[in-house]
Amino acid sequence: MRLLLLSLVLLLALPAPALAMHISEGILPPGWAVLWFVTAAPFVGWGVVKITRRKNVDPSYIPLLGIFGAAVFVFSCFPIPVPVAGSTAHPAGTGMSAIFLGPFASVVVAFISLLLQALFLAHGGLTTLGGNTMSMGVVGSFAGYGAFLLGRALRLNLFWRGFLAGVAADLLTYLATSFELAIALHGDHSFWSVLGQIYLAFMPTQIPLSILEGVVTGGIIVYVQKHRPDILRRLKAFGEVKS
Amino acid sequence: MKRVLVLLVFLSSLAVSGALGAEEQKPKWPGVDETVVEKYARDLGREAREPFINTDQGDLLLFLFALAGSIGGFIAGYYWHKLFVVGKEDRQQRD
């Protein structure tokens, strides 16, 4: 019954065709496109190694990979209308996956999601796959993971640690996207001014969305703590977790 | 007769300008890729190109999004059930 309800909720939450944060096909000049592929490749490669190791020692790792892999895929093509901005954008989801899967595995999950979206959903692009993997995968995952650890160091409760992770993953993903666009395309204009303009243009949509992403990330962590605290105890990012 | 003609011209001009306006109207709820990424790229001299595999044709893209969402939802739901329903029951039995 619960599975049926969950499936129903997820089906009702199907994404509709709309494009959002990913850098579209052909926008990055060839040199920059190649550079971002080269930069992202070691993270993806090491992520595959980490996944192979973890699944051999933790029986709950594959189900976690299934849940958060699918969640990142659906989140990152899920257009959410933001009335104050009059436009739509999507959360990153990589903060949440980085906490549960580890930041390197989260990069792999983001890479696969972006590849599928570029191939079949006309979302993002194959030439910009490296750039999008760097921003959503690498920067999103490590920012989310870092913010979570910062929250732990500040002795925040689990919800607020998750909230910080969700907000940081979202806002820094868009900062990385702005950086990639500005550094490749600023031409004769000042790099900092172009970067500022692009990032500020994202903000009316992304600030509300990042708060939403923070609440969802914090909520999921609290749910897991309540129902399967043993899973959290096995994850390095959590340290001591009370049952 | 002259008045009727003027009225007709006025009304038809209104209708045409309305139709033209409608064509130029921006779509509601555009994605930030359109309003930010592609806009700034265009301003800086770089246009987006068509995807290599262009599935944005009629309702094909809607079908693919629905299919991808269903598969993603099913996978997440399946493993969620495995961890938080079956896994929780197993753990309680072991305890």
Summarize the structure.
The complex is a heterodimer of chains A (243) and B (95). By secondary structure, chain A is mainly alpha-helical.
- Rg calculated over all Cα atoms of chain B: 27 Å
The most extensive interface, with participating residues per chain, is: A-B, 67 and 53 residues
Question: Could you give a short account of the major beta sheet of chain B?
Answer: none
Radius of gyration of chain A: 18 Å
> What is the name of the CATH topology of chain A?
Arp2/3 complex 21 kDa subunit ARPC3
Shape of chain A: globular
- CATH class of chain A equals Mainly Alpha
Order of helices and strands of chain A: HHHEEHHHHHH
Oligomeric state as shown:
heterodimer
> Strand tally of chain B, please?
0
SSE layout:
The complex is a heterodimer of chains A (about 240) and B (about 100).
Chain A (H helix, E strand, L loop, with lengths): L1 H11 L17 H28 L3 H15 L4 E3 L4 E3 L4 H8 L1 H18 L8 H25 L4 H28 L5 H37 L1 H6 L9
Helix pairs in contact in A: 2-5, 2-6, 3-4, 3-5, 4-5, 4-6, 4-7, 5-6, 6-7, 7-8
Chain B lengths: L1 H23 L7 H12 L16 H35 L1
Description:
The complex is a heterodimer of chains A (243) and B (95). With 243 residues, chain A is mainly α. Chain A has one domain: Arp2/3 complex 21 kDa subunit ARPC3. Chain A is built from nine helices and two strands, in the order αααββαααααα. Chain A has helices at residues 2-12, 30-57, 61-75, 94-101, 103-120, 129-153, 158-185, 191-227, 229-234; strands at residues 80-82, 87-89. Chain A has a two-stranded antiparallel ribbon with strand order 1-2. In chain A, helix 5 (103-120) packs antiparallel against helix 6 (129-153). The longest helix of chain A is centred in the C-terminal third of the chain and has 37 residues, at 191-227. In chain A, 56% of the residues are buried. Mean pLDDT of chain A is 87; it is low at 1-19. With 95 residues, chain B is an all-alpha fold. Chain B folds into two domains: 1-49; 55-95. Chain B contains three helices and no strands. The longest helix of chain B has 35 residues, at 60-94. Chain B is elongated and about 85 Å long. At the A-B interface, helix 1, helix 3, strand 2, helix 5 and helix 7 of A face helix 2 and helix 3 of B.
